């Protein structure tokens, strides 16, 4: 009888563990298979929306981890801290020209209200930066360092956003100079305008306090102003930084989420100060720096995760069925390339507009990631070419050679030998590793295979 309670306790524990393992297995099945199956005909609108949202959030979390955004956030935090003093030095310099330096300082303190020590440090360092930049050799060196810090930050942000959006083409040098220069001078002007709007809004609210209805509405508007400003900033960041066309509808939701998350982080920091008294006692005045860096790191986590959500809003179809090119055989990849090439040639032969990736997917029923892989392989061997700007999301594809030259055998031969030049450049040849007789039989069989394909008139 003494062992009975222990036996029951062990039995309950084992049953609980088995139940948890079963639930984990069900969750894994749902995330990898069940969530990606098409919903039934009887599925309601809300169920479809919830399923679609689940797919986007799951893929955003997965890509956030797989693409190493934790490391990217650390790099961007360092670049931001390096550039923040030169940026605000430039902002204060422009603000002094308009007589708005005090308003900019007030805006900065309100923005960093959760970290007053960091705001004081930035203002003092920016003032010192401007004071030394007016005399001696520091004029040239200071301006160069300021431009390097700011442009380096913009370049790093663009690189990370291009990684998120899978953009392989960089901006041309002329466009980099034009875009980056405009950003450097536009950001201070925008901050000055925002600080002026904040002052006008506060003044207007004070005058409206006496009104019964307008007073409370004005107070609500003032409280919502930081949220609106943050949303506009994130919307501009998510839309402009990637070197590709981004739909506004894909950006609005993640921008709202990023704004809410940033305000929650700031609220948590302010209300968590009581738990940091011991930390401040140990580090003293230096406590502001690591806390500011932690806040910066969390801010970039939020920004990059919401950027992934923007990408998933626009390109969720690319992850349909969760199939990637590496999941299928080389023979099937070749067949998909032939099917894609057939539709491109047929469209060109009939004199109709060239096809986009999405249109090919709709015509063939092939998952869009596999269509994109086939187009990349066909473009690499110069069988298809793009029409229009390659940075446009609606890039269209048409044959790159005369149709009479595009026989099935020749297409397969070019696809199979796409990397031959790379092997030759590396002075690597597989043929000597084979027996001469075996190599000859394989070559003759392959040539016969290509000749038979050339006799097929299906393209």
Automatic annotation (TrEMBL):
| Compartment annotation | Cell membrane
Pfam families the UniProt entry points to: Virul_fac_BrkB
- Chain ranges passing through the membrane: 6-25, 72-94, 137-157, 177-200, 220-241, 248-269, 281-307
What kind of membrane protein is this, topologically?
Multi-pass membrane protein
Q: How is this protein annotated for GO cellular component?
A: plasma membrane
Q: What is this protein called?
A: YihY family protein
The record's keywords, sorted A to Z, are: Cell membrane, Membrane, Transmembrane, Transmembrane helix
**Database matches in PANTHER family:** INNER MEMBRANE PROTEIN YHJD, UPF0761 MEMBRANE PROTEIN YIHY
Q: Is this entry keyworded Transmembrane helix?
A: yes
Q: Which InterPro entries does this chain map to?
A: Virul_fac_BrkB (IPR017039)
- The source's superkingdom equals Bacteria
